[in-house]
From TrEMBL:
The chain crosses the membrane at residues 12-32, 71-89, 96-117, 129-148, 155-172, 225-242. This is Rhomboid family intramembrane serine protease. It comes from Mycolicibacterium moriokaense. The keyword Lipid biosynthesis does not apply. It comes from the Bacteria. Keywords: Membrane, Transmembrane, Transmembrane helix. The keyword Zinc-finger does not apply.
Amino acid sequence: MLLRLLARLALVRVTAAYAVIVTCVTVALYVLGPQVHDRVISHVSTNLHNLSHGHIRTLLDSAFVVDDGPMYVWLPGLVCLLAIAELIWGGIRLTVAFAVGHIGATILVAAGLTAAVELGWLPVSVSRATDVGMSYGATAALGSLTAALPRRWRAVWIGWLLAAGVGVVAVGRDFTDVGHAVALALGMLVSTRFGRPAHWTPVRFAMLGVAAAFGYLVLASTDMVVATAAGLAGAAVAECAYRARVRRRSEPEVDVTAAAPQRNAVEA
């Protein structure tokens, strides 16, 4: 029994290790009290102040400090999302997707915020905004599942998620929402280089459902109504585009070279 459990955990060892570390950090910050908690959050936050002062390590440390409410609310969904990505792609490719999404989105958002502050579009106070957690990496992991899905449903999946992310950004205009949309796109792009995924099973499809629900909640947390409306519209457009492309491919091609002699014969 124990050996079987260990064998199954070995299949998701990256997810298990990350979950253990995040749990330990979260519990430790809770035990140490609010003052230590706030100090740590300020120290590892990937805001403009820390990054401009050369605190590059925050790009790594911030992924292990989650400040999104009670752990029992987000940890099960996060574990399910990372686990299905690891089962499908393996631990190394999951790590790549998570890192590209977390670090890439953070850097791109920081560059955008820097430009906005310099141009006077945003107040200087935004440079000290709190920015920690797993949401960019988790959203990238969600995006990385795109290339592993059956081809029939990829267009709907892409249209739904991208439209939802863009819709939230358009309404909320929050830098975190921008980061989620960027991380999602990065996850989708990097997954195209991952090669062949592992096979799907009924259990893995069930895990995908839970993972998609959790990832969608992270992506659309600012405005669920707008995200849902935009996502449905994006999915509908993507489905129509997919069907039109399939219809064009199924239409028989006219052999012009074969038809030409027949036309010449009739004219003669």
